[in-house]
Amino acid sequence: MTKRFEHDVVLSGIGKSAVGRRLDRDPLALVRDAAEVALADAGLTMADIDGLSTAPGPLPGPPMGYTVGGIEVLTELLGVRPTWFAASPETMGHAGPIIDGALAVSAGLCRHVLSIRATWEGTHRRLLAEGELPAPGGGRVTGRAQWHSPFGAMSPANWIAMQATNHMATYGTTKEQLGALALNARANAARNPDAIYRDPLTMDDYLGARLVSTPFGLYDCDVPCDGAVAVIISSVDTIADLRAPVRLDAVGTAMTERFSWDQGTMEHEPMVAGPAEHLWTRTDLTPADVDVAQLYDGFTFNCLSWLEALGFCEVGDGGPFVEGGDRIALDGELPLNTSGGQLSEGRLHGFGLVHEAVVQLRGDGDERQVPGSPEVCVVSTGGGHPGGALLLTTLA
Amino acid sequence: MSSAPKPLPLLTDTNRFFWTSGADGVLRLLQCGACASYVHPPQPVCRECRSDDVRPAPLSGRATVLGWTVNHQPWHPAFEPPYVIAVVAFEEDPTVRLTTNLIEAEPESIAIGMAVEVVFREEEDAWIPVFRPVGDDR
Fold first, then answer.
1. Contact B73/A213, CB-based, under 8 Å?
2. pTM (predicted TM-score)
3. Domain spans in chain B, listed from the N-terminal domain onward
4. Extended beta strands in A102-191, E state
5. DSSP letter at B98?
6. pLDDT tens track, chain A, 396 positions
7. Which residue of B has its CA nearest to A152?
């Protein structure tokens, strides 16, 4: 058997700050909150942390709402002196920093990695509107942006919408089938006191929402927010010190397509197929063993792409698979995005999905707990820039 | 149209040929002299065979629609919604694509596989390639 570094680590702690559309707090205070919750959850203290990872880290240009900075900011904020650290915008999905941390622990560079993702898009938007922050853009565009911005294709909403129209034309996928994903997320969010949008959503609401970029309307798009999530990755050797660890069974990281939004596949979100296929080569488990799924839903169609890529249905059959929502409901055969996902809980950039995976495997979901003590949870993040997948299990 | 300036590409030694190609009404992409692959976005070596014999080559400007969307969201003051964004695949090699705008096309008439042809929108020192349905003689 090939060595699986994944088995050298566990996910030992999760922590989430307050999450809201706009909290008007310094996002670094949210990071502190999330980190302290995760430490207590793991049964560790800050002195135990010897690794740090985050994404996307510091970016050139004016401050952006989807990052609070990188290792410089985190070490100063938390007083950590790590033996290993990483911050990169080009990582294996939004959960890439967790995979990075697992690799570092397995390699013996550190024993407890604190991995952070923080967003302050609500507060950032207010500060921009008030002129308190310099506006991004202006001037000439370079790099990848030159292939999108001169055409007003400013957002992933536009880029992914074009794969969605291709999928609809090729396979007959319907708007109502995409809507089943939005309604499922909202129904689960109604059972999650921490979710941002909890009011019931009907198919009429979904179909009647204002359009963003066809076929996507408002409820096909996730919810920008303020919030931070921390996840601690620990050496399996420390398991006796930990309160409630879960196992990392496998990761999927392979890139099998061009790193591009338009030069590769048009039938699914780019860069979901590689990580999904890779994941199943690193485990004895199969899609049939999965008890609950947390799949990236920046847009409804992303989630559909992941369902197909991970083999829960054939490519092209994602629409019928989710139609009506029964199969993906909390009591269905594949409960999906049980916290409300990014579509209703809030856009916590994949870390919210990892957080929920741990909650479900521990049986801590309260009103939204998947029945029958789930033992296997798949998490996917990203796609597009690029993607990554995790398979988490209970310790047993 | 809005008076706000559209975001334009920064012209460099690598991409200038592409963004100024429309000056004579012809769209050009880099093509590899060794293996004939088109190399887009432009880079100094062929991504298929890694030859550095890559040169701008003229294309027919004909393409088919692979994906499209009507954008309704006001992302940028220079672009007043609604407008149509599309990914088109070139006739010479459909694995080579461009994200672009469809013009002179009613959304109800757009379909995957629709034949389109390039026209250029001149903006300062750049010629922005956008596409319209083939056979549209307006």
1. yes
2. 0.97
3. 16-133
4. 112-120
5. E
6. 578 999 999 999 999 999 999 999 999 999 999 999 999 999 999 999 999 999 999 998 889 999 999 999 999 999 999 999 999 999 999 999 999 999 999 999 999 999 999 999 999 999 999 999 988 777 899 999 999 999 999 999 999 999 999 999 999 999 999 999 999 999 999 999 999 999 999 999 999 999 999 999 999 999 999 999 999 999 999 999 999 999 999 999 999 999 999 999 898 999 999 999 999 999 999 999 999 999 999 999 999 999 999 999 999 999 999 999 999 999 999 999 999 999 999 999 999 999 999 999 999 999 999 999 999 999 999 998 899 999 999 998
7. B79
Under 8 Å CB-to-CB from A76, ≥6 apart: which residues?
A: none
Q: Is the ipTM of this complex over 0.90?
A: yes
Please work out, in degrees rounded to the nearest 5, the angle formed at the alpha carbon of residue A58 by the alpha carbons of A53 and A64: 120
Indicate the fold that domain B16-133 takes in CATH: OB fold (Dihydrolipoamide Acetyltransferase, E2P) (2.40.50)
CB atoms under 10 Å from CB of A208, counted, come to: 11
Q: Give dist(CA A241, CA A303) in Å, integer.
A: 36
Structural domain containing residue A79: 5-131+225-241
Residue in B closest to A163 by C-alpha? B67
What H or E segment, with its residue span, contains residue A211?
A: strand A211-213
Q: How far is B62 from chain A (nearest CA, A)?
A: 17
Q: Do A140 and B8 touch (CB under 8 A)?
A: yes
Indicate the residue of B9, B69, B72 with minimum beta-carbon distance to A140: B9
The CATH number covering residue A163 comes to 3.40.47.10
Select from A177, A211, A241 the last residue of a domain. Answer: A241
Please check whether residue A140 touches B, CB under 8 A.
Answer: yes
Tell me if B75 and A211 make a contact (CB, 8 A cut-off): no
